[in-house]
Design a protein that fits this description.
Strand content of chain A: 15-25%
Largest sheet of chain A: 8 strands, mixed
Largest sheet of chain B: 5 strands, mixed
Number of strands of chain B: 5
Number of domains of chain B: 1
CATH superfamily of chain B: Beta-grasp domain
Order of helices and strands of chain A: HHHEHEHEHEHEEHHHEEH
Distance between the termini of chain B: 32 Å
Order of helices and strands of chain B: EHEHHEEE
Helix content of chain B: 10-25%
Number of strands of chain A: 8
Shape of chain B: globular
Structural class of chain A: alpha/beta
Strand order of the largest sheet of chain A: 3-2-1-4-5-6-7-8
CATH architecture of chain B: Roll
Oligomer: heterodimer
CATH class of chain B: Alpha Beta
Radius of gyration of chain A: 18 Å
Chain lengths: 278, 95
């Protein structure tokens, strides 16, 4: 095992002093590889905390550029980053926090054709996407690859978060077997989002990923955490794996990544609007 | 929650809460099967709500989580009792 430098011992001292982490745990984090899908509101606290924690390799997927309307919640980016590719802005911020961290930007949009290749080199995937097509694609790819996935979604003053452990609990399709009809569930662009809600829910995702990498505690596997920011209340709902789930069930019908549009056609010919980008 | 023995609390989150403008409603649905109660709820709450819960053929959408007293609902259906809490969750797209 590579020895810590004096600077690393100081940087990670509050981790190392935790009996549950220690030097061995910190070394695990430095040797870990996490992929974050999206560089937006949820991914910002995830990226910041994972970089600060010393997760050694962090991939970040996003095809967008930084927009002024992003800055109310997407704290990976600054005003000086306006117009820059988000994954490059995120890379600069995360590597600036911690030079031990290598950030790999993936400036692309995930599709059924590339998703398995993109996630292949990572231990854990974080879903911080802003649209249902990417959420279903990430779920299917992680189940098919056996990779843990931290899922979260936010809207207005609320957030949902769960941890998907393929083969050991329900997946996203077990919770929501089919996507909602297009246009019925609004985006943050349409319905708004209190910026700090993204911070709360993304921070929970970051904590779940760190616990997972360190093998600590009880994960949100089989549980959906529902956060109501107006009441400042958390509810945890236990949800089972569905034996009839099309991707992780006993007789799966989805055996390779499929795009959302294709899935919707299979379920009955729904006409889809174009993907939204809150 | 209502003290009325005929009433059931419907807890609303996400897009349903935004559309209806209430966190929860106390409605006289005790004695009804939960799917029938959801049908009546959709009828009573206006045109914007029904498509969030049912498809054009009247089938409950598979994109919602329906809970009775914080537990998943038996697929064979369950009859509501006074004081029950029904929670309707839709997935959240935002990130």
């Amino acid at each position: 095992m590579t020895r810590f430098t004096e600077s690393q011992i100081e940087r990670y001292s509050r981790h190392i002093i935790l009996q549950e982490v220690g030097g061995i745990g910190q070394r695990k984090l430095l040797d870990s590889r996490v992929l974050i899908i999206g560089a937006g509101g949820l991914s910002s606290p995830v990226g910041l905390y994972l970089a600060a924690a010393g997760v050694g390799t962090i991939g970040i997927v996003d095809s967008d550029t930084v927009d002024l309307s992003n800055l109310q919640r997407q704290i990976l980016h600054t005003t000086a980053d306006l117009g820059r590719p988000k994954c490059l802005s995120a890379q600069e911020t995360m590597e600036g926090i911690n030079p031990d961290v290598s950030v790999i930007p993936h400036q692309l949009r995930l599709t059924s054709a590339n998703v398995l290749d993109v996630i292949a080199d990572y231990d854990v995937v974080v879903d911080g996407a802003d649209n249902f097509p990417t959420r279903y694609l990430a779920n299917d790819a992680c189940v098919l690859s056996g990779k843990p996935l931290s899922h979260a979604g936010i809207l207005r003053f609320e957030g949902h978060v769960t941890t998907i452990l393929p083969g050991r609990g329900p997946c996203y399709r077990c919770l929501y077997p089919e996507p909602p009809p297009p246009g019925l569930v609004p985006s943050c662009q349409e319905a708004g989002i209190l910026g700090a809600i993204a911070g709360i829910i993304g921070s929970i995702q970051a904590a779940e990923v760190l616990k997972l990498l360190l093998g600590l505690g009880e994960l949100l596997a089989g549980r959906l955490l529902v956060f109501d920011g107006l009441d400042m209340a958390f509810r945890t709902i236990e949800l089972p794996r569905r034996p009839d789930c099309p991707v992780c069930g006993d007789r799966p019908t989805i055996t390779a990544p499929i795009d959302y549009e294709e899935f919707c056609r299979l379920r009955g010919g729904t006409t889809l609007q174009s993907e939204v980008h809150p | 929650m209502s003290t009325n023995g005929n009433h059931v609390e419907i807890r609303l989150f996400g897009p349903l809460r935004a559309t209806i403008g209430e966190k929860s409603l106390s409605l006289p649905y005790a004695g009804m099967m939960i799917d029938d109660a959801l049908e009546r709820f959709a009828d009573e709450q206006g045109e914007a709500v029904r498509p969030m819960l049912f498809d054009s053929q009247g089938n409950r959408l598979r994109s919602i989580i329906l809970l009775l007293n914080d537990h998943t609902v038996d697929p064979d259906g369950e009859r509501l009792r006074g004081g029950d809490v029904v929670t309707v969750l839709l997935p959240l797209a935002g990130g």
